[in-house]
Design a protein that fits this description.
Layout (H helix, E strand, L loop, with lengths): L3 H8 L4 E2 L2 E2 L6 H16 L4 E3 L5 E5 L7 E7 L12 H16 L8 E6 L12 H6 L5 H6 L8 H5 L10 H4 E9 L9 E7 L2 E9 L3 E2 L11 H19 L2 E10 L5 E2 L2 E9 L3 H22 L2 E10 L2 E2 L2 H10 L5 E4 L4 H5 L5 E6 L15 H18 L1
Parallel strand pairs: 5-6, 5-7, 7-17, 8-16
Antiparallel strand pairs: 1-2, 3-4, 4-6, 8-15, 8-17, 9-13, 9-14, 10-12, 11-13
The structure holds (2S)-amino(hydroxy)ethanoic acid and manganese (II) ion (MN) (2 copies).
Length: 389
Amino acid sequence: MPTFRELWDGIAPIGRGANGYLRYALTEPELVLRDWFRNQAARRDMPVTDDGNGNLFAWWGDPWAHDAVLTGSHFDSVPHGGAYDGPLGIVSGFLAVDRLREQGYAPTKPIAIVAFVDEEGGRFGLPCLGSRLLTGAIEPERAAALRDVDGVTFGEALGDLPAGLLPGLDRRISALVELHIEQGRALAVPVGVASAIWPHGRWRFDFTGHGDHAGTTKMSDRRDPMLTYAYTVLAANKEARLAGAHATMARVEVEPNATNAIPSVVRSWLDARAEDNATLSAVVDAVVKRATERAGRDGTELTVTPESQSPEVDFDTSLADRLADLLGGVPILPTSAGHDAGVLSAHVPTAMLFVRNPTGISHSPAEHADEQDCLSGIDALAKVLRDLT
Ligand code: HGY
Ligand code: MN
Ligand code: MN
């Protein structure tokens, strides 16, 4: 039976760049990981199905027979991301199946390991794209039209119009349990259970000014969108701090992005999250208000476009309590990171298992979980899958 170390070392080189992972959805590295997934399934006599949305399912039992229990996560990473965010849940799924088979266990319901497509939204801009399609949270046509930085659409990358909502979703899935590395500094023991996901979203800010010569344009004559942008970054930081929320403007595009030209357009994205919807709206409204006022002073224009919204998720309390008890009374804790489990939680009983992250660092090459804790996570997942089937 393969060990965690063997599986982990087997995928480690795939998509690893000089500075972290570049595993964008349906690009070459992720396609290699999909082949790895099919190979791991074949070694376990697990048939693989695709739901027509780019999500892969490896089955122990008849595919979609009845009351399937899903586990798994995603392969894709943020640009220069870490190794664990996503793949740990998929590798742990295969090893949990191995553990159960070793125990001679035979599930009464089909178990599927799922690899969701573009959970990070790192290529097509909308997080949890695969789970949103599976649950009908996004129209196939809108998903198909999403474009990457090279102008390639999701539909082109997928090779077809996505299938969208899985018919009979809530009849066919009895539970989803996603195992994931914890991404804060909140778990002091190897394994925990999720209670909630903070509401969060992404807003695109387009700052438009007057492109001009950096050397010959008087300061008083400028309408420089970079000023309005810079002010907005500081305003977002301040408003988040005041509200106990999280706000980040880490992605920016400048036209023409030349050393000696005042920009005509600066485009940036606000990632904002808060413990509840009211606080989140208040923070975003305050940032937009302050940015708009500043645009007035700078003589620039501002348009703000909401690009993705993820509502507050409160996981099924009875399921979370049951799993925490099953695992010996492990902590139940919230997260402000989004997950496919959060999308499915509106449709089927859903839980998350967290594996301790000693530094709490994530979305970074420095992301790490100790092997012993990963093994504890696999044992915990095996126990949970046994309990649910
Ligand atoms: O951004 C998130 O919270 C998740 O990693 N997609
Ligand atoms: Mn992530
Ligand atoms: Mn993730």
